[in-house]
Amino acid sequence: MNSKDIGIFLAEGKGLRVEFKSSFDNKVIETLVAFANTSGGSVLIGISDDRKVSGVTINHESAQNWLNEIKNKTSPALVPVVESLEYNGRVVFKKRINVTKDVTKDVTKDVTKERREFILSLINDNSEVTISELAAICGVSTRSIIRDIEHLKTEKLLRRTGGRKSGYWVIMGDH
Q1: Please, are residues 116 and 108 in contact by the beta-carbon 8 Å criterion?
Q2: Phi, psi torsion values for 112, nearest 5 degrees
């Protein structure tokens, strides 16, 4: 795809297989899920609904973070084909998804919040559960669990009593 193709997309406007988004957010993921469950399609990021090309400022790491977020918030994981294009001196990202069918994850839910609630539920069942065990059950890294636990502690929903090896978790509040 080249800048001429973007010109064609702009001339034709949004449709059943093309969407414009000015920036990356959950709406992009929702659109990709819709495309995956229908006939496929492309989302052009850096173009507003009224077809104005603002472009996006992004580096390789940011693009990878976008892909990771899409994969983590969809089930089965969507992996769109991504192209970085230039149009009139502005960078536009095209994310194309083919038909996948049965993508079931509701991307509007806050995955982290759900995981934290699940962690509290697991701790409620076993107050001596370890961070490594929580990570294995939740399917995330121990670092993610540590961040979640720190958040739960900050929110005064959880505290640790005793040492690392002989201690246990105490759920505070309404949980």
Answers
A1: no
A2: -65, -45
Residues forming a β-bridge with 92: 85
pTM, two decimals, is 0.55
- Rounded Cα gap, residues 29 and 31, in angstroms: 5
CB of 81 within 8 A of CB of 117?
Answer: no
Amino acid symbol at 123: I
Q: What angle do CA 47, 99, 42 make, to 5 degrees?
A: 10
φ, ψ (nearest 5 deg) of residue 36: -65, -35
Q: Tell me the C-alpha distance between 139 and 2, whole Å.
A: 39
Residue 72 structure tokens: 């983590």
Full DSSP string of 16-59: SSEEEESS-SHHHHHHHHHHHHTT-EEEEETB-TT--B------
Residue 154 has pLDDT above 60, yes or no: yes
55 φ/ψ angles, rounded to the nearest 5 degrees: 75, 175
